[in-house]
Write a structure and sequence with these properties.
By secondary structure, the protein is mainly alpha-helical. The protein has helices at 4-14, 18-37, 42-51, 65-73, 77-84, 97-117, 128-135, 146-155, 160-173. Helix 3 packs across helix 6 (97-117) and helix 6 (97-117) crosses helix 9 (160-173). The protein has a single domain (4-173), classed as Hypothetical protein af1432. The chain contains 9 helices and no strands.
Length: 184
């Protein structure tokens, strides 16, 4: 299996924008936490989270086919499969916990970051209740597919609130690195 350092090198060669790099890192951290929670392979989950959107910036019309192809060439079929299906509407079978967790982590993590960014205190002190209130506001972070968030939670056997409660502390633990500290 590729190392996390190799995955980071691949990711950084393909993704240059700050926002997408932060998103990938947040999903990587959430996937790592999910692997621990479900007693799965931490490195495999983290690499999947990091690389899931690696080709989006340069090849949005071919996403995720470019990164999936690269991973298959490297013999990383399980990670490639999870990334190929990290959006349920692509109709890729979800056979493993890895396949399910990337769906649960991707959109909802992005949504929670968006909810944090509009607060002066950012991720500090954010409550699941306020995230869920924003979730019910269709004009807030309108590009986030709410249905996908709900399906992701369902796939891993959690209620949406429970999944939000799981993700928030992961982001809080890494708030400095993720630039989610209070605005001065």
């Amino acid at each position: 299996m590729m190392t996390r350092a190799e995955a980071r090198t691949l990711f950084e060669s393909m993704t240059h924008g700050y926002s997408l790099r932060r998103h990938a890192r947040t999903v990587e951290l959430v996937m790592e936490a999910m692997a621990r929670h479900f007693r799965e392979d931490v490195d495999k989950f983290a690499i999947t989270g990091l690389l899931h959107d690696a080709d989006y910036e340069a090849h949005p019309d071919q996403h995720p086919n470019i990164i999936v192809g690269k991973l298959r060439e490297l013999g990383e079929d399980e990670i490639a499969h999870a990334i190929a299906g990290h959006y349920t509407k692509w109709n890729v079978p979800r056979n493993s916990m890895l396949d399910k967790c990337i769906i649960a982590a991707d959109e909802l993590t992005g949504f929670i970051v968006a909810a944090a960014l509009i607060r002066p205190t950012r991720i500090e002190g954010i409550k699941p209740k306020s995230v869920l209130k924003k979730f019910r506001t269709p004009t807030f972070a309108a590009k986030v597919d709410r249905e996908e968030c709900l399906k992701g939670a369902e796939l891993i056997g959690m209620e949406l609130r429970e999944l939000v409660e799981f993700i928030i502390p992961v982001l809080q633990e890494h708030k400095e690195e993720l630039d989610l500290v209070p605005v001065e």
